[in-house]
Structure formats: C-alpha cells, structure tokens
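Revision sheet: structure tokens.
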Amino acid sequence: RDEPKQKFTFFYNTGKLSEIKTEENGVLRTYAKVEYDNTGKNVRSVTFDDNNGVNNGKVTYAYDYSKKVAAQYVPDDEVGHHFWAFLKYLNILEELKPENLLTGSFLRTEHVPGDQTRVYSEHRFDSKGRLISFRLAEGWGGYTPQPGDGTDWDITWK
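Predicted:
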C-alpha cells in the first residue's frame, strides 16, 4: 500500500535555514525551527513540532569555539524526526554543518521521560581536519555522564 507523501517547505532568513514546514491537508505546519549561535556558523538549537502545534522537543548544542573542524559526524538527537536525521547525515544543507567542534547536546522532550544529555569527547582528527573518532556518553533523567562513560565511535570518510 502506498504511504501518503509528505511535502516539506524550507524557509530561510539571512541566507540560513530558519524553519521547515510540512503540509497537512493543505495547511503548512511547523516541522522544525532552527536557531544559530552568535557567529551564525553553528546551529544553537532545533525545536521540533509534532504538527499539532505542540512542542515535540528541543535540542540545544554546545561547541568548543577554540576548535574549527573541516567535517564531523555525530549521531544526532532527532527526537524521532527521521527527515531531520536524513538532512544532517547526508550533509545536504551547508548551514547545518557546524564550523566548530561539537562537544555536547541537551534534549528536552515531552514524550520521553527525563531529559537527555550527550557529551562528545576524546576527539581525533585526520590530516584534513575531519573528525575520525570520538567518545559519546549520554545520560537520561538528570544523570550527567561521567568520564569513562560511553561508547567509542570511528568514522571513515570516503
């Protein structure tokens, strides 16, 4: 059986993606709102909507502004929004690629008990400045990840 197709419309402000809307029964509804940091080169937060006008989660990002990176990939806090993950993982939109090293994220959602904190550490880079490995530690419901917690991730760029 054919699933209904979902149409997404992208809105830009000063050359940067600011909002994604989806059409439902001929009405555009907010899917995600994107905010940038003061440099305008890193996404500060993304607020997702469940298309019923109710907030479905907000992800806030932390960066090490002393370190610029050529490329990085981390598993994202997409709050079940697979289209957002698709955009990020395929690096389709330049403005979603942070200039500085991502060091953490904080997810607050009404649909999952407790908030989620992610800490990215032990970063290693190749000679081109691309992230090739890191450690991801995460905690739910007020638990703050501790040194040594987490899983090691390796990245192969092709």
